[in-house]
Amino acid sequence: MNKDIQKYNRSLSETEKMICDILSEEINLYLPEAENKIWHGHPVWFLEGNPIVGYSKLKSCIRLLFWSGQTFEEKKLKPEGSFKAAEARYTAPEDINKKDLKRWIQKGKKIQWDYKNIVKRKGVLERLK
């Protein structure tokens, strides 16, 4: 795992660290080809320069974000923002359903919107896959 992501996880409370360690292990397991780094202050995984999944600490939880998640048609993922992102929120490690997480990561590989070029296209998203 990326050393900066390890440092990010270690900076959290014990419960938050446990959640993030599980998320990063599962994401790395199912997205081994992805580049991962701290992006805008949070761990994010990319395929060909396009953000796929990441997580961040909010006041009351850890938020797992899939940039193309609204297109996954998953009831447990809630819309986030004005584009195609969707999220799940966790307050305890046992909140994480690894079967759901695996399915969402696999959908993240198959269903992608072109966030990499969103600025060049002046806020217009085009579907890649």
Report the portion of residues in β strands. 15-25%
The number of helical elements comes to: 3
Domain count: 1
Q: Going across the major beta sheet, what is the strand order?
A: 1-2-3-4-6-5
Task: Tell me briefly what this model is.
It holds the Pfam family DUF1801. The chain has helices at 3-10, 14-30, 98-110; strands spanning 35-39, 42-47, 50-57, 62-66, 78-79, 86-90.
Describe the structure.
The chain is an alpha+beta fold and 129 residues long. The protein has three helices and six strands. The chain has helices at 3-10, 14-30, 98-110; strands at residues 35-39, 42-47, 50-57, 62-66, 78-79, 86-90. The longest helix is centred in the first third of the chain and has 17 residues, at 14-30. It is globular and about 40 Å long. Residues 22-107 form the YdhG-like domain. It comes from Leptospira idonii. This is DUF1801 domain-containing protein.
Give the SSE layout.
Blueprint: H1 3-10, H2 14-30, E1 35-39, E2 42-47, E3 50-57, E4 62-66, E5 78-79, E6 86-90, H3 98-110
Antiparallel strand pairs: 1-2, 2-3, 3-4, 4-6, 5-6
